[in-house]
Design brief:
13 strands, five-stranded mixed β-barrel, four-stranded antiparallel β-sheet, alpha+beta
C-alpha cells in the first residue's frame, strides 16, 4: 500500500524545524558577539537623550547681493553643513531651516561634536591673494611711514612635493620707504577705474572704493584701515575683510592674530580646489592639508606663482585666506601648479577640520551664530522613562491577554518577543558606529509600536491553528495546514507596515525619520522571527504531550474550542453509507 502523500504545508517545516532554529540562534550569537567585540554594547543616543548643543545660525546680507538670502541658497547651505558634520562622524546631527533666514543645527554630545560645532557656521570662503606687505598684529603708530615688511611669525605653508617653498616669515625690507612705494604702486594699480565702470562716483555697497574714486584716495583709505587694524582684538580680526569683494584689495589678520597683511585681489578661489585632505608629514613631523586643484585652478595657480616668484619678499608671498583670516602665507621661488600644501600650527583635529570644509565647498551665504544652547539629557531622560513605563504597561497588558486567552501558547509568544527584542537591540547597537544611527525618543516609540505588530503576527498564526482544530484535526497536522494561510496574512500585514515606514522615512526629516527607521527595522525582524523561530517552535511543541494531547492549559483543548468530530471517522461513516455492499 502506497504511503500517503504529505500535505503542502508539511513539507520541510514539520520534519526539520531544528534547522531554522539553528540559523536564528547563529544569527543571534554572531550579532551579540559582534556587539561586544566592537565595544559598542549600547545603542548610540540622539541629542534628546544624550544631550548636546543646539545652534541657531542667522544668514547675513551679502554686499551687492540684496536677494542672496533665498530658499535655494538656504537649502544649499543646509546640505553643505550636514555633509560637513556627517563627514566628521557625528551621529544624528539635525540641520534644517527655520523661517527665511535661520538654520537650526542640533549636534548630539559625543565624539567630534565640539569640532563639528566649529564648522557649522564656517563659510569657508578660500582665496589665494598676493601679499603686498605684512607687519605685526598691533596697530601701526601714528606718523609712521607706509606699511613695511617686518618679521612676523605667521604660519608657514608650502606647495606640495616635489616643489618647495621657503619659510613664510617675511624678512625686514632694506628700506621702509622703498617697500612702501612698491605697495602704494600696487594699490594704485588695483584701484585704477575700468572703462566700463559707473562714472556716477557712488561708492559700492561693499565698502570698497568706487570706480570713480581716485587711486590716491583709495590707497590712503586702505592704508589707514591697515594702520588702525588691531589683530589682537578678535572682533576686529573677524570683521577686517567684511564686505570686500574678491576682486578688491583688502586687509586681513593671521588666524593667531600675531600678524596683519595688506593683500591684493584674489587670484585663485576655493572653487578651484578639487579635493583636500589632512596628512601627517613624517619628515617634518607636522600636520598639513594637501589640496589638489581643478584644471582651471591649476592654470591660475601657476600664473600667480610665476608672477610672485619674480618679486622680492614679502611680495613673493601669497596669502591663503579662509573666511577673511590668513591661515598661511608661504613664499614662492618658482612657478608651481597642480597641488599645494597648507602647513603651520596645525594639529590633527585642526588639519582635518580645514580639509573637511574645503572638500565640501563654501557656503553660499555668510552666517552669524545667533544662539547656542546646551541641551541636557535630563528632560529627554524623563521623557524616556515615561515612554518606557508606558511601553512596560502595554507589554504587561499584552502578556495578560495572551496568558488569559491563549494560556500555554503565551509562552511561545513571549519567547518570540524576547528573540525579537534581542535582535532589535543588537542591531541598533551595531548600526550606531556603522551608519551613524542614533536612538531618539521617536525611535523608542517606533520600537514600542512594533510590540503590537509582532504580537499581531503570533495571534494570526494561533487563530489559524485553532480554526484547524475546530475542524476536527489533531494539533500536528493543524500546525502545518494553518501555516500557509497565516503566512500570507502575516506577509501582507508586514508589507503594508514596512511600506508606510519607508514612505514616512523618505518624506520626513529629523527625528520623525528615527520613528520610521525603527518601525521599518522591527517590521522586517518580525518576519524573520515568525518564520525562523515561532513556526519551528510551534512545530516542536505540537509533538509534546502537553500541547499535542490538548491539555486544558495549553490553549489548544479541542473541547474548549468546540471541535467537530475527527475528520477521519466522518469519512469512514460516509464511505459505509455510500457502498453498503462493501461493508
Amino acid at each position: 500500500m502506497a504511503a500517503p502523500k504529505k500535505g503542502r504545508g508539511s513539507t520541510g517545516g514539520q520534519g526539520r524545524p531544528g534547522r531554522a532554529l539553528a540559523l536564528i540562534l547563529i544569527a543571534m550569537v554572531a550579532l551579540t558577539g559582534g556587539m561586544f567585540l566592537s565595544g559598542h554594547t549600547t545603542p548610540r543616543l540622539g541629542i534628546d537623550l544624550a544631550g548636546g548643543t543646539s545652534i541657531t545660525l542667522k544668514a547675513k546680507n551679502q554686499p551687492g547681493k540684496p536677494d542672496a538670502i533665498n530658499e535655494t541658497n538656504m537649502n544649499t547651505a543646509v546640505s553643505i553643513i550636514e555633509r560637513r558634520v556627517n563627514g566628521l562622524g557625528v551621529s544624528e546631527a539635525e540641520v534644517q531651516t527655520q523661517g527665511a533666514s535661520n538654520i537650526i543645527v542640533n549636534i548630539p554630545k559625543g565624539t567630534n561634536s565640539a569640532q563639528a560645532r566649529e564648522q557649522v557656521g564656517t563659510t569657508a570662503q578660500l582665496y589665494f591673494r598676493p601679499v603686498l606687505t605684512v607687519t605685526g598684529g598691533g596697530p601701526t603708530p601714528e606718523g609712521s611711514a607706509s606699511p613695511s615688511a617686518s618679521g612676523s611669525g605667521t604660519p608657514s605653508a608650502t606647495p606640495s612635493a616635489p616643489e618647495t617653498a621657503s619659510d613664510s616669515k617675511a624678512t625686514p625690507s632694506p628700506s621702509a620707504t622703498t617697500q612702501g612705494r612698491a605697495v602704494t604702486d600696487g594699490l594704485k594699480k588695483d584701484a585704477t577705474p575700468t572703462p566700463s565702470a559707473d562714472a556716477t562716483g557712488a561708492a559700492d555697497s561693499s565698502g570698497a572704493p568706487a570706480a570713480s574714486e581716485t587711486p590716491d584716495a583709495a590707497t590712503a583709505a586702505l592704508e589707514k584701515k591697515f594702520a588702525a587694524l588691531d589683530c589682537s582684538d578678535e572682533e576686529a580680526r573677524v570683521a577686517a575683510g567684511d564686505g570686500v569683494k574678491p576682486t578688491d584689495p583688502t586687509v586681513a589678520c593671521s588666524s593667531e592674530g600675531d600678524a596683519k597683511y595688506l593683500l591684493g585681489p584674489a587670484e585663485v578661489s576655493g572653487t578651484d580646489v578639487d579635493d583636500a585632505k589632512a596628512q601627517f608629514d613624517q619628515q617634518r613631523g607636522i600636520w598639513l592639508v594637501s589640496m589638489d586643484f581643478t584644471d582651471q585652478g591649476s592654470k591660475k595657480f601657476q600664473t600667480i606663482t610665476k608672477k610672485l616668484s619674480a618679486q622680492q619678499s614679502p611680495q613673493n608671498q601669497f596669502a591663503i585666506s579662509l573666511d577673511g583670516e590668513v591661515v598661511s602665507a608661504p613664499q614662492v621661488n618658482q612657478a608651481l601648479s597642480g597641488s599645494a600644501e597648507i602647513s603651520g600650527s596645525f594639529d590633527q583635529q585642526s588639519a582635518e577640520s580645514l580639509a573637511n570644509v574645503l572638500s565640501y565647498g563654501a557656503l553660499p551665504l555668510s552666517f552669524t551664530e545667533d544662539t547656542a544652547t546646551t541641551v541636557t539629557a535630563a528632560l529627554g531622560g524623563e521623557q524616556l522613562r515615561a515612554g518606557l513605563i508606558a511601553g512596560a504597561i502595554g507589554l504587561a497588558l499584552v502578556v495578560i491577554y495572551l496568558v488569559a486567552y491563549y494560556r500555554g501558547l503565551a509562552l511561545i509568544a513571549l519567547l518570540s518577543l524576547l528573540v525579537s527584542g534581542i535582535l532589535t537591540y543588537t542591531i541598533m547597537a551595531l548600526l550606531g558606529p556603522a551608519i551613524g544611527f542614533a536612538l531618539n525618543l521617536p525611535a523608542v516609540c517606533g520600537a514600542i509600536v512594533a510590540i503590537g505588530i509582532t504580537a499581531d503576527s503570533f495571534i494570526v498564526y494561533f487563530e489559524r491553528i485553532r480554526d484547524e482544530i475546530r475542524e476536527g484535526r489533531t494539533l500536528r497536522p493543524a500546525v502545518e495546514r494553518a501555516w500557509p494561510r497565516a503566512r500570507r496574512t502575516i506577509l501582507v500585514s508586514d508589507f503594508v507596515s514596512f511600506l508606510a515606514a519607508a514612505v514616512l522615512f523618505l518624506v520626513t526629516v529629523g527625528k520623525v525619520q528615527g520613528f520610521a527607521f525603527t518601525l521599518g527595522l522591527t517590521t522586517l525582524l518580525d518576519v524573520v522571527v515568525v518564520f525562523l523561530f515561532t513556526k519551528p517552535v510551534m512545530t516542536l511543541m505540537a509533538r509534546t504531550k502537553f500541547f499535542g494531547g490538548g491539555n486544558p492549559w495549553s490553549g489548544l483543548d479541542p473541547k474548549r474550542l468546540g471541535a467537530k468530530p475527527p475528520l477521519r471517522r466522518s469519512r469512514r461513516v460516509n464511505a459505509r453509507t455510500d457502498h453498503p455492499k462493501e461493508a
